[in-house]
Structure to design on (244 residues):
């Protein structure tokens, strides 16, 4: 054992070391644990990893654990890999469906349903979908899932998007509405086109578009298409009359 490590053990009580370790994020915790045997033991404490696991996956039930699993750190690692694999499936699906840089609302909603069935947590979405290098459509899927499935407060999602540097990314949403009936005659179908940022969708400014994305092609709306926007575009909406 190195002299410096012996000095740490003599001067730093274990309970203080555990308190320090428990205040760290996972990556920082792992980095500290690689510094010495003393910190490896402290950072590998079962109580710390139990807290991290339950904090990240609040709905996790002990009945789902592999009986051969040894300790909470192993449970955390196994769960992380499982959720990473699940997220990768959704990423692959959305990328395959949006080869032309647009996605139909049916495929969009399927991606969200898949996330829900996989029970990804808010932290999972942050790690795997809120990445600037990913297609903005995937950022949008993650945002929608957080708001409507996880029921996360809009301001908390907003803060997360700021930290991930994707808040101002934009998408183009276009939807077609059936023409209204007027004195026995059906008016021409109407198309609506809108550029919105992820920030807009978390505020009243994008409320109508978010509602369209949530409902999909139902009732008077018979088609919805989401595509990648031009980063230089500003947010705007317009309605045009199509053919009846």
């Amino acid at each position: 054992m190195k002299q410096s490590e012996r000095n740490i053990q003599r001067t730093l009580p274990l309970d203080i070391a555990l308190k320090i370790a428990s205040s760290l994020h996972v990556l920082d915790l792992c980095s500290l644990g690689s510094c010495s045997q003393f910190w490896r033991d402290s950072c590998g404490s079962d109580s710390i990893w139990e807290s991290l696991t339950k904090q990240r996956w609040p709905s996790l039930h002990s009945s789902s654990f592999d009986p051969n699993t040894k300790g909470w750190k192993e449970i955390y690692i196994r769960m992380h890999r499982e959720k990473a694999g699940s997220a990768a499936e959704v990423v692959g699906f959305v990328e395959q469906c949006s080869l032309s840089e647009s996605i139909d609302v049916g495929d969009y909603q399927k991606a969200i349903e898949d996330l829900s069935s996989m029970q990804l947590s808010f932290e999972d979405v942050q790690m795997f979908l809120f990445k600037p290098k990913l297609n903005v459509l995937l950022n949008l899927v993650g945002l929608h899932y957080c708001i409507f499935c996880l029921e996360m407060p809009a301001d908390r999602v907003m803060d997360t998007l700021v930290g991930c540097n994707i808040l101002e990314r934009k998408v183009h949403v276009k939807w077609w509405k059936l023409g209204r009936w007027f004195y026995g005659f059906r008016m021409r179908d109407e198309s609506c086109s809108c550029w919105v940022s992820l920030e807009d969708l978390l505020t009243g400014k994008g409320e109508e578009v978010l509602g369209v994305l949530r409902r999909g092609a139902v009732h008077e709306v018979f088609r919805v298409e989401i595509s990648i926007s031009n980063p230089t575009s500003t947010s705007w909406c317009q309605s045009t009359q199509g053919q009846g």
The chain has a mean pLDDT of 83. The chain has twelve helices and seven strands.
